[in-house]
Structures are given as structure tokens and as C-alpha cells.
């Protein structure tokens, strides 16, 4: 199928969303990204690529990196991974300490900050060089050596990272963090500051549309069941406290980041990445969600 | 596809689950159901029916009726329905007042008790005889006139229904209930006490596998979008505080009830109803969830 | 000591508080009370009475009645009373369901609505005519037959009493209410609508300044320990979520009501009642609290 | 009055409490304190001292030090202090993050850990050598140069101090901490590890029985109003989530620590310090609370 016309139409249709949201400003390095950026890239399992707008301009993927972290840790730890992190929607803002205290240090799912920090801790335990490995993994999946750590963002994250430091310390007090607090934060802040573009993101997420098999070299990265389960968790937990609304309006497994990126997957078919820095009140890309809603409406694609 | 062999094998494989759960005992009328009951029914869009065990024995569908209520109210109120009830997973037990207070009387979703009570209030506002209409609607969808209100359960619900009375009163204090408290409770307790069997349930839920069109008479009950959205909400909110785990392990939209029934839908394909009265700690059928997990594993069917 | 000059000065000094608060409007019967009303009455154990302003005009004592209810129930049930209601500050608004759910139906203390409803239930269990008895008890303590139920307020409470109905139903679901829901609400709404004036209130509360002995007829109503303990609970729990601030600024055991009344006690010395209908954001009388703060500052009286 | 006979009788009467509680074991340095230790010291404003048991053996005063911190900060910052910390009972365990998140980084009161950390931050801002100054302040008040930092406890606190690190980081993310995280924790952990005995503690707390004037040298440390207000906060917030029960059973302003110490004050009269390491389920000294309850019962002293 030819998606080029569709994404071009979407790029035009989402224009009214611009100015309704707000670029993330909790760290200076993100606040200076121009609000007007917009890009879409679609990669199909049949090998086609479609793109529009700023689809080749790198941006900070932020929480989207949590999926790459989980995709690394899951094959290593298997189902034992779920002893240290849950798989239920959080029903609360993404950095909530309340839920964590209530659950005695076991985060609700791997896509809230607390859960991602536990996954980071697991990667540190297994890989001698977790930061290098993360970059290698994403480069391999995306087929691009251009993916990099944006160190200005890393520094910015560190400088304003008191909430994450609170989370790690709190979980350490509940014995759910093994590495030193500083190391967990260091690896995590690097992970958040991965920079890549829509085209690369769409390529990397094809893995999850392809049931865990690398779509270009045929290598199995995740078991079929693991890929399916990561998709399920993206659907139920991928959009902070707006997960239900995204499932409702878009109906696809996906993951967003405060850098304004969203990636979604249609199993057996394709992956799609959108970037637009202005965020809605829930911290998800305002125009990005609209674009995906339009994409599913216009293509009539849905998992439901 | 011939599912008969598969469900027969499942019926054998779930035997070890028996005795692990506990029949609901919060009302006497449910407590006396024999724990050993077990049935499966599969209805396909191509018109086939497969069944095993006690698939023709009626049981109390309880919270599964919340889907029938939503399916009636949604076409009437359209998207305005979501002004009075949310669409986010609750992250809390199904009768939690905490969430409701925090959200100022707007329930998180239509499948927690509070949300279902608001939907009931909406049906009362629209239908002169909401109790009669509910039964008619389910009979029409299931193609069976045998669906009935089990009045012993109704009475039992009413006698021990103080938590639901608390919910209605609380929402009334927030102006999110319009009808008199007693009427809302009366209609709601009737709805919970609908009795029908697996075969009838599977037939009725074909509507949601068929994108909102009655599978036998071709009548459109829900728009395509509405059917898709109800499926999305079933996936994210259909299993109380175990919604994430069900999505993870089974990967299908579905709805459970404390009577031990579970119905799930594979869009474009089929619906499947399972009944086994023993519940796990989250209030979902112990063997029922296992059966559905086996069904998706053996058929390799999944939306992800 | 001659308090007349002091309270007259206070009456002048609190003038700037007028207009800063807001008359309670959650029920119509209270909303129509003139905002400009203001009265103070002081009764000493040595038998003197001092008063200023509208000290002989009856108003709705509302939550102040919770002290009269506790003072009746405590001698009957003794320390067993505390098995059904706690004695800890709530840290939450006075009708919070959250705390109650967390504590599984045991209210935090007898001065939040939930706790007062349990006390009402205990009075119903013991007295054949709890409504008559309540009025007799207050009349006896205040030495005035003019204390009465303001039935317009009673009706108004009932009409808008959905939150209280929610509380009773919720506690009944936790088996902490024995009488029928409707009866508990009926007695409670009567109790809230007791009307009396500052002079009568100050007289009645002398009991607690006098260690449980009726100051005029010498009859022991409460043991010394019970009187002391009720004072302790008034200090820690008597002012909703402003209890700490009242202890901090005023430093006396006391109780407020949304009708704008406040009563406070100086053990071994006196009791003082103030009335001013405008409430601050915490639901306590704006000018009333200021008046009491001035009284303790000017008299240098304090328990600390 | 001669309290010697009374405290000796109390020492005998509390024996049955031994073995009912549990020595604090959250840090190794506290866990090794012998459970059988027990001491009482009474200091009167008239200059008498009474003591029994291990009243001259130093122990870790832990949270009692929070009162010394507040007594230093209050005269410096005045009422502006309350812009950064509240004065309401917390209604939650003493290190709860929930309340803190709900209140957006403003701790409920200065006697929960979060609040004490803010006070520590204020002391750091004002004093060039806050650790030296703290020790000097306590030595001056207690009239003893033997008060010291138990560095083994300090190290132990630091090693297991992840919860406090979580609190400081979280408040820093809400801009309610100004000094570097590590410095606040360092000063705070020192403060917690102050070691002194019952006699010294009782002497130091005479300040609060004497309305803010040093009882031996006549120097005014706190205004009369400040002393009264610290007493009020001790009464409402001094005993974690058992504050109400302590006010109810003992009826005195006081403060406890997990080292097993409790100090209480009878304004105008005396101060009393008790030490017994076994704690009840709320983290307060089991025998210590019993001893104070007996003391008020036997002396008939109470503020109510």
C-alpha cells in the first residue's frame, strides 16, 4: 500500500493543532527545540519507507528509549523480570511516588520512570558497558550509525534530575535497586538523551511489528511471545495517564516521549513514527496523537 | 477453522487450576454455585459454534453486563457519554471510592462499578423501561429468549449492596447521577443479575468482533468506530486491577464477571465465552483466564 | 476576672475580618443567614457570664453537636467506643472517603462526619428515642429549654445529604453501622440542625472545663478522665484540616461548625462561644478564629 | 512536690511492658542497644531533679532532635518559617512520600522527616557551621558538655538513608531545598545521631516548660508565643501517627524518637524524659508511653 499520500494529507490536516500544546520545558535543553517541527516516517514489513516533513531530523527520544531498554532486558531475564516491575497501567502521572510507596518499591510497569530505572539497574547488572550497549542495540535495530547521545540533554537531565534521584533512592530503600544510585542515574539519563529521527525510529520499531525478528537481517531478538507482550504493555501503559485515551482514539500499541516523539506499531504490517514537540496536558505530543488518530481513521487500520 | 479439538484439549488442560481459586461469596446467591462447573463456547463470524462442558448452563454474568449497558448507551449519547465517565484504567480495585473522590465524582471508566452506575443512570434517563429494555437487548444480540433476571441474585445484591449505594450517593453529591438513588440501584442490581450461558454470551459478543453489525440479521447496532472503541476499553479496563496482566497473557479485548464468566473477542474472527466459578485474587475466573491464555497460545491468535 | 472589656474590644478588633470569608452555602437553609452576625459569650466556673453582640441569637450549631453526641456515648460505651472509631487527626477534609476506605470503615476520629455517624449509630442502639434524648441532654447542660431542632435545616440537610448517605452506606458495607441507613441519617441530620445561641453553648461546654461535672447542679456526667480525653480530641481533631493551626494560634481545645460557631474551653476556668457565619477556606469561622486568637493573646490564657 | 516516689513506682509498674515491643533495627547501630534499659528523669522549674534507673546513660535521641532544630530555626526565620513547612498532623507514617507529593513538596509539619529536612536546610543557610552549632545549642540548654554525636550511628544512618535521600531529592525537585542534597543529608544524619541521657534531655526541655526562657541563666531563647507554639505542635504532631492517642492517653506536649526516648513538658511546672528502647508498632517507646501515662494519672497533671 502506498502511504505517501496519506501522510502528506495528515501533515496538512494537523496544522490546526500547532500552538495548542507546549514544548517540554522541565529541562533547558528541550525547551529550545522549535515548536514548529513536524515529521512522519512509515516503514512497512514489505520494505517500503514513506516520510514527510522533518522526518530525518534527530530529536530527543526520551521515554521512547524505555522500550529499547525493555527489549534488551526481557530476553536476558525472561519472565523473572516481572518480579521487580509490574505490568499494570499506573493511573497516575508518570513520575508518581504515591503508587510506588503504596506498592512498596515495585513500580507498576516498565514505562513509568520508576519502572524504567529498575530495568536500567537490570541492564547494569548484566552488561559491563550498558551505555555503549544501549547505543549499539538501537543502531543495530534502526540500521543507522547516526543514533547518538545528546550530551547537552544528558547534562540537563542530570542537573534537574532530583525526582528521578528520589525514585532511585526510594526503591533502593526497598531493595529493588542493586547498583549504586549514581550509576543507575547516569545510565538512565544517557538513555533518555538518545537522539534519532523518525525514519530511524520507525525502522527500529519494525522489530515489534515483525514478532521479534529483525526485519532486515532475520535475526530473532525477542521470542514471538515477548514481542507480543511488549506490544500489549505499550498499548496499556505507553502513554502515561492517557493510555486509555490513546487505545480508544488510535487503537495501536505505541510509546511517546516528552521530546514530542511517538512511535506506534501495526503488527504484521508496519511501524510509524511521528515528531512534533508541543505536548498536551498529559505530556504526549499534541499533533502527534492527532496524526496517529488520522492515520488509523484514513487507513482503517486497527488491532480492534 | 475447527476449534472443537482445541477447546476440548483446553478443558482437559485447565483441570489443575480447579481448587486454586475461590467462588465469590460476597452475596449468598453466588456462593452456592458449584465450583466444578466449566464451559466454553466459541462463535465464529462464519457462523460456526463450538462448545464444551457446561456451555449451555446459565450463570450470573455480573460485570459482563456492563458491556451490554455501554453498548446501549453509547449509540444514544455518542461521544458526549465521555463527559460523565472516563476511559482510563483505574489501577485500583473495582469498587474503589478513593479514585472517585480524587476525580470529583467522574468514574475512571465504564467498567468499574461507579462508571457502570453512571451508564445505568443514562439508560434510565433515556428508556422508559430500562430493565425490560436491557433484557430485550441481550436477547436480541444472543438470539435467545432464555436470557433472564435471576431475582434471587437481584435480591441478594440489594441486601448487601451498601458499597454501591455509597458510590451512587457520592456521585449524586457531585451531580453525576440524575435519577433517584434507589432507582439507579434497582436497575443496576437487575443488570448484574442477568443469567445466561456461554453459548448465548459468545453469540451476543459477536457484535464486537463484527465491528458493530449484528452478525445474524445484519443490523448496525454500533458504528464501526464505537465497536472498535468498546474493544479498546475492554482491553485496557476489562479486568479490574489485572487488566494489564490479561492484555499481557491473553492479548484480547474481553470482560470478566465475579460469577466466573469471561468473554473475549478476536476482531473479524470470533468471540469466545468461558465459565468457571472459582476466582483468583483479583476477582477474575482462575480457570477462565488460563483457558483463554491457552486458546491464544494454541491458535496463535492475537491482536498484537 | 472581668472579661467584659476584653470581649468588647475583640468585637471591635475583628471587624476587618468581615467580608473575607463566605457563609456556608452547601444547603439553602444556611446560606440565608446574614453574614454580619457576630456574638461572643463567656461563662466562668465561678459563675459569671459575659457577652457581646448577637450572643443570644440562636444559630445552627452543626458539627459542634458532635461533641454533645460523644459526651453522651462515651459514658455508656466506655473505652470500647474506640473500637469503632479512632482518635487520630484525619489530615484530610472532613467528609473524606479516602481515609475511610484506607482504614476499612473505621473513621479516624469522632469529629469527622464518618466518625460522628458511627457515634449516632451507637446512640440509636442505646436510646429508644435518640432524637428526644439529644435535645434533653443539651437543654440540661445549657440550662435552657430554648434549644431546638431547626426543621428547615434538617430538611435541607436531608435533601442534600448524599455525601453522608455515601459514608453510612460505605461503613455499613464494612459492618461498622448497625441501625438501618435511613435511621442513622435521620438522627444525624437532626443533631446537625440543633439551634442554640452563644450563651447556651458556653454554658453547656462548661462541663468540659469542669472535668465532667455539671457546673450548676454538681452531677457527674463524665469521669474526669473522659472529660480530659474529649478535650484532647477537640484539640487534635476539632477543626477539620486546620486542627494544627488552631492548636498553634489559639492553643485551646475547641470545636467549630459550618454554621459559623466555635466553642473553646480553658480547663478549670471557663468556656467561650463565638459566632460569625463567614467561613474561611477550611470551613471554620473566619472572624471566630480571629476572636479566639485575640482572646488568648489578650488574657494570656493557654494550656501550653 | 516530691516526684521520686512516683517515678520509682512507675519504674516498677512498667515492667510488664518489657518484651512487648521491638528495638529499632532499621540501622545496625541502634539494633544492638540492650532492650532492658530503662530510665526516667524529671526536672522542675523550681530546680529539683528526680531520676530512676538508667537516667544517666546516653542514648540516640533520633527524632527528639527535631525539636532542637526547630527551636533554633524558629527565632531566626520567625513566622516565615511556616511558608516552607506546615503545622498540621500528618495522618501517615513518618517518612511518607505520599503526603509530600500531594502537598507539592511542602511537608505537613516539622516533626516528620521531610519537615525536619527542610528545617535542616534552613539552619544550613543561616549558620556557617550548622553541625557545631547544633551541638553547642543542645549543650547550652542541657547544661552538659557530654552531649555528643555518636558517629557510628551517623555512619549507619548514612549507609541506610535512601528514604531520606529520596525525600530531599523530591523536595529539591519542588524547590523547597536550597543547599546541596548531600550537605542536607550530612547535617541531618548528624542531628539524628546526637547522644545524651534522660537527665540532660529533661534539663534541655525545661526551656519549653519555661515559656522560652533558659531556666538556669534566664536568657530568652524563644518568645513566649514561639515556646507555646512549639508545645502545640509537639502535642498535635510529636508522635508520628499516634499523636492523637498520646494526646488522649497522656495529654502532654512531647516528642519521641526511635532510639526509645520520649520527652514531655508540663508548662509552668516540669519536664520529664523517659528512655526504653523497645518500640510499639507506631515507632514510639512501648514502656515510655506507659510510664508517661502513669505519671499523669498518678500526679493528676494534665493540660486539659
Automatic annotation (TrEMBL), chains A, B, C, D:
Its EC number is 3.5.1.2. It catalyses: L-glutamine + H2O = L-glutamate + NH4(+). Belongs to the glutaminase family. GO terms for biological process: glutamate biosynthetic process; L-glutamine catabolic process. The keyword rRNA processing does not apply. Substrate binds at residues 63, 113, 157, 164, 188, 240, 258. It comes from the Bacteria. The keyword Nucleotide-binding does not apply. NCBIfam families: Gln_ase, PRK00971.1-1, PRK00971.1-2. InterPro entries: Beta-lactam/transpept-like, Glutaminase. SUPFAM superfamilies: beta-lactamase/transpeptidase-like (SSF56601). This is Glutaminase. It holds the Pfam family Glutaminase. It comes from Phaeodactylibacter xiamenensis.
Amino acid at each position: 500500500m502506498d502511504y505517501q499520500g496519506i501522510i502528506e494529507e495528515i501533515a496538512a490536516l494537523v496544522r490546526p493543532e500547532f500552538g495548542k500544546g507546549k514544548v517540554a520545558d522541565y529541562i533547558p535543553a528541550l525547551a529550545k527545540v522549535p515548536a514548529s517541527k513536524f515529521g512522519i516516517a512509515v516503514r512497512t514489513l514489505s520494505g517500503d519507507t514513506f516520510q514527510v516533513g522533518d522526518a530525518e531530523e534527530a530529536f530527543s527520544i526520551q521515554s521512547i528509549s524505555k522500550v529499547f531498554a525493555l527489549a534488551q532486558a526481557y530476553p536476558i531475564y525472561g519472565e523473572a523480570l516481572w518480579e521487580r516491575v509490574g505490568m499494570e497501567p499506573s493511573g497516575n502521572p508518570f513520575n508518581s511516588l504515591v503508587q510506588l510507596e503504596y506498592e512498596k518499591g515495585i513500580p507498576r510497569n516498565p514505562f513509568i520512570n520508576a519502572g524504567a530505572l529498575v530495568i536500567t539497574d537490570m541492564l547494569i547488572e548484566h552488561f559491563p558497558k550498558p551505555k555503549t550497549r544501549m547505543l549499539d542495540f538501537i543502531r543495530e535495530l534502526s540500521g543507522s550509525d547516526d543514533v547518538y547521545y545528546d550530551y547537552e540533554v544528558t547534562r540537563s537531565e542530570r542537573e534537574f534530575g532530583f525526582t528521578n534521584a528520589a525514585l532511585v533512592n526510594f526503591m533502593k530503600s526497598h531493595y529493588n535497586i542493586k547498583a549504586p544510585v549514581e550509576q543507575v542515574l547516569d545510565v538512565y539519563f544517557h538513555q533518555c538523551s538518545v537522539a534519532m529521527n523518525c525514519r530511524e525510529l520507525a525502522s527500529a520499531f519494525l522489530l515489534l511489528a515483525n514478532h521479534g525478528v529483525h526485519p532486515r537481517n532475520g535475526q530473532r531478538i525477542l521470542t514471538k511471545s515477548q514481542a507480543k507482550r511488549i506490544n500489549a504493555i505499550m498499548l496499556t501503559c505507553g502513554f502515561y495517564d492517557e493510555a486509555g485515551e490513546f487505545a480508544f482514539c488510535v487503537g495501536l500499541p505505541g510509546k511517546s516521549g516528552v521530546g514530542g516523539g511517538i512511535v506506534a506499531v501495526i503488527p504484521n504490517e508496519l511501524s510509524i513514527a511521528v515528531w512534533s514537540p508541543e505536548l498536551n496536558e498529559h505530556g504526549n505530543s499534541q499533533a502527534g496523537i492527532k496524526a496517529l488518530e488520522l492515520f488509523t481513521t484514513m487507513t482503517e487500520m486497527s488491532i480492534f
